[in-house]
Amino acid sequence: MNQTLFQAAALIVPLILAIVFHEVAHGRVARHFGDPTALERGRLTLNPLKHVDPVGTVILPGMLALAHLPVFGWAKPVPVDPRRMDNPRRDMMLVAVAGPATNLVLAAVGAVLLGLLARSFGGAGEADIRRTDADERALERTVQLRSWSW
Question: Residue 112 to residues 8, 87, 95, 108, 109: CA-CA distances in angstroms?
Answer without folding.
Answer: 21, 36, 26, 6, 5
